[in-house]
C-alpha cells in the first residue's frame, strides 16, 4: 500500500474512533459549548444596554450590538470547543492504547489526523449551533455575497484547524486531562481581551496593541467585515498569517512530542 | 531454523546518568517462550519497549533484529510482525470490546468481512462474547487483559511481547492467561514474556533470563537455573529415636537434626536418587514417619542471583551456567556497585 493511501486509510480509522468517542460522550463538547452561548446571552440581554452604548458613537441599539457581538462569539466558540481536543488527546496519551498504536505498522500521523479532523468537525457543528442561537436572537448579515459567505466559512474552518493543532500540542504536553484543560484556558480567555465584546480602540492605550494583534482580533474583524461589510484592511492577511503560523507550530509541536521516546 | 525471532547484542539504554540496560544479549529462537525475569525496576519494560520500537536503544548498542528486521533501519517492518501487550492495559476504555477489536482489524487493513470474522472468533476464544457490547472501561482486570491479548492477536503477529501479563490478576485469571500463552506457541508464535513471578517463568518459559541491575545475571532453562543453587535434599523425620539413629547409620552423607529427629540427604529430587535412599532404608528395615523432597525453586535462584551483588558470591555462581551467552565483559562486576 502506498504511503498516501495508508495515511488516508489509517487516518479515516482514527477519525471514526474519535467520532465514536464524541458520539458516545457528547457531554464534553456540550459543556464547552455552554460558555460562548452563555456569554452571548449575558452580554446581549443583561449587559446589552450598556454595551451597545459603548460601540459606534454611542446611541447604538441592542440589535446593532448583537451584530457586533456574534462574529466574536463564533470565534470564541472555536477557542472553547478545541479545548475538547486538548483534553481528549491528553486522555488518550495516558491510555495504553497509544503505546499500542505506536507499535503497529500504521501511519504515524494518523492518530493526530484523526483527532484534528474530528475536532474540526465538532467545532463546525458547534458553530452551526451557536450561529443558530445568534440568528434566533436577531443576528442578520448585511448584504454578504455568496463569495463572502464562503470566505467567512473558510476563515472559521482555517481558524478551527489552527487552534486544534495548538490544542493537540497542549494535550500532548500535559500529563493528564485536568492539566490539559488548564493549559488550554488561554484559548477561552484570549477572546475576552480581543475585540469580541468591545472595540479594541476603546481599551486603555497601553493595552491596545495586545488586543489588536493577538490571534482573535484580526480573525474577528475579518469575519465582521465579511458578514457585516465593515472595514477589513490589514486584518485579513493578519488573520490568515496567524492561522497558518499557529497550525504549523501546533503541528510540529505535536509531532515532535509524539516521536520522542516514551518515558 | 532460519533466523532467531529476536537477536539483540550489547543492548544498552541509559536515561541521563542512570544506566538502565548495561549491555545485554538476547537470542530467542522462533516458536519458543522466552521469559525475562527480574524485580521491579530491573529494566524489563525498557527491554520490551526497545524491542517493540517504542523506545530507541542507545547508539552504543550492537545490532538488534526482531523478526529478521533491523530495529533501526526498518522499524515499520518490525512493527508489522509483532504484537505487544503492555503492562498497562492498551484497550480503548470508551468504546466497546467489539469496537476495540474492529478498530484493530481496520488498522491491520483487513477487509471488512474478514475483520468481523476475526474479531468474532477472538472474542469467542477469549470468552468475551457476552461483554462484547459493553464499554471496555467497565471490564474487570482479567477481562481487560483478555481483550488486550485478543486485540494483539488480530494481526496474527509472529512475535508477541507480553509485559507482565498477569500482574494484578487473581489466581484464576492468571491460570487462564497461562493457558492462553501456552496455546499461542503451539501455533508457532514466539512469545517474549516479562514477569516478576518465578512460578510463571517456571511454568511457561523454555528459556529464562534473569535481569538484574541492567545485566543478564543468568540465563538458561528453569532446570539449568535451579542447578545453580545448592539446597536440594530429601528430609526424613522419625518419631522413634532408635529408628532415627539406625537410619543415620544406614545412609551416607546425612545431616543430622537430633532435636527434630530428622535427617537431610542431599539430592536432586530425581526418582533414581530417591529410590536409592528408599532402598537403603528398606534394606535396613527402617520406616520413616515422614518423607519430603525439597528442590531448590526459582525463588532460591532469584534470591541468590539478585541479592546484593556486593557480596560477590551470588554473581560468582552464574559463571557456571552452561548456556550463558558469551560476553567478553561478563566477569565484570556491574558498574552500579560504585553508586
From TrEMBL, chain A:
The keyword rRNA-binding does not apply. The keyword Protein biosynthesis does not apply. Keywords: Antibiotic resistance, Cell membrane, Membrane, Transmembrane, Transmembrane helix, Transport. PROSITE patterns: ABC_TM2 (PS51012). It holds the Pfam family ABC2_membrane. Belongs to the ABC-2 integral membrane protein family. This is Transport permease protein. It comes from Streptomyces tauricus.
Amino acid at each position: 500500500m502506498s504511503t498516501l493511501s495508508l495515511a488516508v486509510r489509517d487516518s479515516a480509522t482514527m477519525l471514526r474512533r474519535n467520532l465514536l468517542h464524541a458520539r458516545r460522550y457528547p457531554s464534553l463538547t456540550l459543556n464547552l459549548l455552554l460558555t460562548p452561548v452563555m456569554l452571548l446571552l449575558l452580554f446581549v440581554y443583561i449587559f446589552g444596554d450598556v454595551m451597545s452604548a459603548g460601540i459606534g458613537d454611542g446611541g447604538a441599539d441592542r440589535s446593532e450590538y448583537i451584530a457586533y457581538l456574534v462574529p466574536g462569539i463564533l470565534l470564541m466558540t472555536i477557542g472553547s470547543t478545541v479545548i475538547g481536543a486538548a483534553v481528549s488527546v491528553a486522555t488518550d496519551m495516558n491510555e495504553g492504547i497509544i503505546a499500542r498504536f505506536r507499535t503497529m505498522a500504521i501511519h504515524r500521523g494518523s492518530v493526530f489526523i484523526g483527532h484534528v479532523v474530528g475536532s474540526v468537525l465538532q467545532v463546525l457543528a458547534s458553530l452551526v449551533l451557536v450561529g443558530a442561537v445568534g440568528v434566533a436572537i436577531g443576528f442578520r448579515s448585511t448584504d454578504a455575497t455568496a463569495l463572502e459567505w464562503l470566505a467567512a466559512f473558510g476563515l472559521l474552518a482555517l481558524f478551527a484547524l489552527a487552534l486544534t493543532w495548538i490544542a493537540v500540542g497542549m494535550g500532548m504536553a500535559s500529563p493528564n486531562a485536568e492539566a490539559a484543560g488548564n493549559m488550554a484556558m488561554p484559548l477561552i480567555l484570549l477572546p475576552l481581551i480581543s475585540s469580541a465584546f468591545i472595540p479594541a480602540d476603546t481599551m486603555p492605550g497601553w493595552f491596545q496593541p495586545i488586543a489588536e494583534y493577538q490571534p482573535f482580533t484580526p480573525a474577528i474583524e475579518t469575519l465582521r467585515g465579511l458578514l457585516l461589510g465593515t472595514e477589513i484592511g490589514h486584518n485579513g492577511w493578519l488573520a490568515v498569517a496567524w492561522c497558518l503560523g499557529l497550525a504549523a507550530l501546533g503541528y510540529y509541536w505535536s509531532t515532535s512530542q509524539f516521536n520522542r521516546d516514551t518515558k | 531454523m532460519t533466523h532467531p525471532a529476536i537477536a539483540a547484542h550489547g543492548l544498552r539504554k541509559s536515561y541521563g546518568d542512570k544506566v538502565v540496560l548495561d549491555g545485554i544479549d538476547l537470542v530467542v529462537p522462533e516458536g519458543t517462550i522466552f521469559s525475562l525475569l527480574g524485580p521491579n525496576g530491573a529494566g524489563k519494560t525498557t527491554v520490551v519497549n526497545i524491542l517493540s520500537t517504542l523506545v530507541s536503544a542507545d547508539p552504543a548498542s550492537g545490532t538488534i533484529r526482531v523478526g529478521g528486521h533491523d530495529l533501526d533501519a526498518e522499524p515499520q517492518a518490525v512493527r508489522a510482525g509483532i504484537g505487544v501487550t503492555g503492562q498497562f492495559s492498551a484497550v480503548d476504555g470508551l468504546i466497546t470490546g467489539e469496537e476495540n477489536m474492529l478498530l484493530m482489524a481496520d488498522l491491520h487493513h483487513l477487509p471488512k468481512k474478514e475483520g468481523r470474522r476475526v474479531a468474532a472468533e477472538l472474542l469467542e476464544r477469549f470468552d468475551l462474547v457476552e461483554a462484547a457490547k459493553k464499554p471496555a472501561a467497565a471490564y474487570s482486570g482479567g477481562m481487560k487483559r483478555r481483550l488486550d491479548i485478543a486485540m494483539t492477536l488480530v494481526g496474527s503477529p509472529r512475535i508477541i511481547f507480553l509485559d507482565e501479563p498477569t500482574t494484578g490478576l487473581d489466581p484464576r485469571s492468571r491460570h487462564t492467561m497461562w493457558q492462553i500463552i501456552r496455546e499461542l506457541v503451539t501455533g508457532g508464535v514466539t512469545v517474549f514474556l516479562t514477569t516478576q513471578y518465578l512460578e510463571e517463568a517456571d511454568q511457561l518459559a523454555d528459556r529464562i533470563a534473569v535481569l538484574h541491575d541492567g545485566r543478564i545475571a543468568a540465563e538458561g532453562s528453569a532446570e539449568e537455573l535451579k542447578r545453580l543453587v545448592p539446597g536440594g535434599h530429601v528430609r526424613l523425620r522419625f518419631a522413634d529415636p532408635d529408628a532415627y539413629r539406625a537410619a543415620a547409620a544406614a545412609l551416607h552423607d546425612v545431616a543430622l537434626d537430633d532435636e527434630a529427629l530428622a535427617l537431610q540427604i542431599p539430592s536432586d529430587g530425581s526418582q533414581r536418587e530417591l529410590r536409592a535412599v528408599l532402598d537403603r532404608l528398606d534394606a535396613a528395615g527402617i520406616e520413616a514417619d515422614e518423607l519430603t523432597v525439597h528442590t531448590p525453586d526459582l525463588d532460591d535462584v532469584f534470591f541468590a542471583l539478585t541479592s546484593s551483588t556486593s557480596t560477590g558470591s551470588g554473581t560468582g555462581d552464574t559463571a557456571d551456567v552452561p548456556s550463558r551467552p558469551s560476553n567478553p565483559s561478563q566477569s565484570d562486576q556491574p558498574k552500579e556497585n560504585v553508586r
